[in-house]
């Protein structure tokens, strides 16, 4: 059994033995299945401006590289959708956490040119020290993403930390020197961190706001044990179940138990969109074609205005999705500001489905197919 499988098994065993966590497993549970991480963003991609920011918060996604063992934390579509497209080694692990669009505490992103390791820190002094004193070892400011913001010293700002308040969630910082390039790992899940420490020899590292083992803070509503409450509690498959992201709610929990693969292949984007709609009593033809084809079906009303419980159809290559087939996702919620929350599936994800947030500007570029 490989390490990824061992971690999933260990986490399931912990859930069975500790019922207090059964209803408090967030999407980070899924993200923990790849716990020995390494980094390696060597590919230069055509970069769009950050496309995951609303008026109040920024969505940070997490990706995992099955070959290098990297966990990458990013808000950039060129990485979120482009990396899995460029290499099958990259898998999407959904929304890691959400941060304010701006705060007084930037989280910096550094890269090691010798190993391709990335490092994230909210410690300005540490970032400066790594760039100056660590230059001989390969550390430098990450300039591969010009769309990201920079501070007055030109350091790359990956995103901003939330305030250290009881309402927000500490992003826990773990390190395992045996993991090589992937020795740094960040999560808001106390359950994930506990399994990493007790069963895989990861150690708390760093300090933020005088709290040992905390890297920075994420937006969220903390509970008594520091975790968040999961909306989705079913275990319909061997894939971990993601949590609805901060600031959003959905009308009904996703339950994939009875999802059919009669006409759409299991874990394809079309399979999930068609079945999620059917779960809510909404009908689409079982022969809509590939993702990009749904918006061209004459039997359905199609609009560019976001509609709750519609299926959003992406053109080929749009937002980094397949240049051959396009993509579909299910619209779970529409915010008053025009931003949308979608659920989606695909072979490029490490979970059965994930959530993704699009800003109002992005959402206006999409086509919404209204079911019957």
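^ structure tokens above, recovered residues below v
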């Amino acid at each position: 059994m490989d390490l990824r499988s061992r971690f999933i098994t260990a986490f399931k065993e912990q859930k069975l033995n500790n019922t207090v966590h059964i209803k408090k497993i967030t999407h980070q549970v899924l993200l923990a299945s790849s716990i020995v991480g390494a980094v390696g963003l060597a590919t230069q991609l055509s970069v769009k401006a950050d496309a995951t920011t609303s008026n109040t918060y920024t969505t940070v996604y997490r990706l995992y590289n099955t070959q290098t063992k990297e966990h990458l934390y990013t808000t950039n579509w060129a990485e979120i959708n482009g990396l899995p497209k460029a290499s099958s080694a990259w898998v999407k692990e959904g929304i890691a956490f959400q941060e304010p669009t701006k705060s007084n505490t930037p989280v910096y992103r550094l890269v090691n040119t010798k190993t391709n390791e990335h490092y994230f820190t909210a410690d300005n002094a540490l970032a400066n020290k790594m760039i100056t004193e660590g230059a001989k070892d390969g550390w430098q400011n990450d300039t591969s993403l010009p769309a990201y913001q920079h501070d007055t010293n030109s350091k790359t700002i990956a995103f901003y930390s939330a305030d250290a308040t009881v309402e927000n969630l500490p992003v826990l910082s773990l390190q395992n020197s045996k993991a090589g390039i992937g020795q740094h790992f960040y999560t808001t899940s106390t359950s994930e961190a506990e399994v990493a420490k007790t069963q895989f020899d990861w150690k708390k590292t760093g300090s933020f706001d005088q709290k040992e083992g905390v890297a920075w803070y994420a937006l969220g509503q903390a509970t008594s044990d520091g975790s968040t409450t999961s909306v989705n509690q079913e275990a319909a498959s061997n894939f971990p179940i993601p949590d609805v992201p901060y600031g959003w709610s959905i009308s009904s929990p996703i339950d994939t138990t009875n999802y059919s693969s009669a006409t759409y292949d299991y874990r394809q984007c079309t399979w999930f969109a068609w079945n999620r709609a059917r779960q809510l009593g909404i009908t689409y033809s079982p022969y809509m074609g590939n993702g990009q084809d749904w918006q061209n079906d004459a039997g359905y009303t199609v609009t560019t205005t976001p509609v709750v419980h519609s299926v959003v159809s992406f053109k080929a290559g749009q937002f980094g999705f397949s240049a051959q087939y396009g993509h579909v996702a299910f619209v779970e919620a529409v915010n008053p500001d025009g931003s949308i929350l979608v659920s989606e599936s695909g072979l490029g994800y490490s979970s059965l489905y994930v959530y993704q947030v699009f800003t109002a500007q992005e959402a206006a570029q999409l086509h919404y197919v209204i079911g019957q």
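The CA atoms of residues 190 and 227 lie 6 Å apart.
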